Amino acid sequence: MSSSAEYLNPAEAARRLGVSPKALRLYEQRGLVTPVRTAAGWRAYGPDEMARAGQIAALRALGLSLAQTARVLAGDPQDLAPALAAHQASLEGRMRDLAAAIDKVCSLRVDLAKGRAPGAADLARLTAPAAGPHVAFDLPWPWGGERFELGEIKPLTYIIGPLGSGKTRLAQRLAETLPGAAFLGLDRLADGATAPRARLAADPALKARVAAALAWLVEDGASESDALIGLLAGLHAEGPAALVVDMVEQGLDQATQEALIGQLRARGPGARPLVLLTRSNAILDLAEVGPDEQVLLCPANHSPPSRVAPYPGAPGYEAVATCLASPEVRARTEGIIAWRPQVA
């Protein structure tokens, strides 16, 4: 190791790259980057390793799978064309939004030149960030009608809580209240092994979208299964403006869950909002929650659901952490439900 070059530990390297230490470990496990070792055996990232990891992070941000990233780094650019086309479409959408905002400013300036002062609401709309859909409703049983408001539905919203906390009822109420939303329940697993494939056979466009998503996931370590295909069929169906998914990890092993959440995060901030019920720490890794994600906790004592910031010490953080379990533990408790009294 050269003494003149700067070498960073994994945590500092990840911070400078804008990724997580977990992502760096994944890059290493897949042979995409090899950190050097100190005399004591610790991993370290020098200029060459940082440049390589920066390339990987950029390609992942464009939506490439780990296998596609490896091929591009090896000199095969064929996977770049569709990724760049999708990125261009996203940028053009942002340009249209910006152009519309500029038009509003110009209109207000014209009015101002004519002696018509803009109202406070007009000015507020110019500087307010673009907000996603929001909801407000009276909570169903077991909360007893308390008012619930969520100012913004982000691209990824997680609902978590212990058994019997009412999280499924909250999710169903969100699906009913969000404009154009749909609820993707566990019946996606109960229609028989051939049902998802039969649905795809009847819808060639959906079949193509699911095939592309499935290929991406398998390259990132996922295992193909009917549970995964059934989930992807729901996630990629056209129509719903938002989708609420019951126990997204059901029937999926750990590698598949990790690949899936990586793909969902790669959709970007303008993607259709997804609300995911989960109790898996492979789906909801609190250290990985980004600015386009939020966590809703349904407490065990039936206090109203609340947003929880994903960092230690935040109110509700420990309650969220104790609800999460590894896929192995979740598999052992699959099918267990809480006893509920009948509602008259």
Please characterize this protein's 3D structure.
By secondary structure, this protein is α/β, with parallel strands linked by helices. It folds into three domains: 10-73, Multidrug-efflux Transporter Regulator, Chain: A, Domain 2 (Orthogonal Bundle), CATH 1.10.1660.10; 80-127; 135-332, Rossmann fold. Helix content is 44%, strand content 11%. It is built from 13 helices and ten strands. The protein has helices at 10-17, 21-29, 47-61, 66-73, 80-113, 120-127, 167-177, 195-201, 204-219, 226-235, 254-265, 317-323, 327-332, and strands at 36-37, 43-44, 135-138, 147-150, 156-160, 181-184, 242-245, 274-277, 293-297, 306-308. A six-stranded mixed β-sheet has the order 6-7-8-5-9-10, sandwiched between helices. Helix 8 crosses helix 10 (226-235) and helix 9 packs across helix 10. The longest helix has 34 residues, at 80-113. The protein is globular, with a radius of gyration of 23 Å.
Key descriptive features of the protein:
six-stranded mixed β-sheet; alpha/beta; Rossmann fold; globular; Multidrug-efflux Transporter Regulator, Chain: A, Domain 2; 13 helices; 11% strand; 344 residues; two-stranded antiparallel ribbon
User: Helicity, in percent?
Assistant: 40-55%
- CATH architecture verdict of the largest domain: 3-Layer(aba) Sandwich
Distance between the termini: 72 Å
Q: How many strand segments?
A: 10
Determine the mean pLDDT.
87
User: How many alpha or pi helices?
Assistant: 13
How many distinct folded domains? 3
Question: Which descriptor suits the 3D outline?
Answer: globular
Detail the poorly predicted runs.
337-341
Radius of gyration: 23 Å
CATH H-level homologous superfamily name of the largest domain: P-loop containing nucleotide triphosphate hydrolases
Outline the biggest β-sheet. 6 strands, mixed
Give helix and strand order, one letter per element, not per position.
HHEEHHHHEEEHEHHHEHEEEHH
CATH class of the largest domain: Alpha Beta
Structural class: alpha/beta
